[in-house]
């Protein structure tokens, strides 16, 4: 990465863990940290496979996310929902 004076470092690092049971039901946990913003994000999600073929998949996910930072004095768990369609060629 180039060194540019007076530009802050927005690098983010984190980790996550996923578990999938019989390619149908799954769960994931994750955490990310951005030092410059003094912010940590955490999430917990559940996943349900709705449709699967050898070349495509449709999943529904639901869970919650939360951010911790001295600049966000009162953060709470926020709901999160997603649909994910994946197609292989």
From TrEMBL:
Residues 6-89 form the Attacin C-terminal domain. Keywords: Antibiotic, Antimicrobial, Immunity, Innate immunity, Secreted. It is found in: Secreted. It comes from the Eukaryota. GO terms for biological process: defense response to bacterium; innate immune response. One of its GO terms (cellular component) is extracellular region. Pfam families: Attacin_C. InterPro entries: Attacin_C. Its main location: secreted. Belongs to the attacin/sarcotoxin-2 family. This is Attacin C-terminal domain-containing protein. The lineage of its organism: Eukaryota, Metazoa, Ecdysozoa, Arthropoda, Hexapoda.
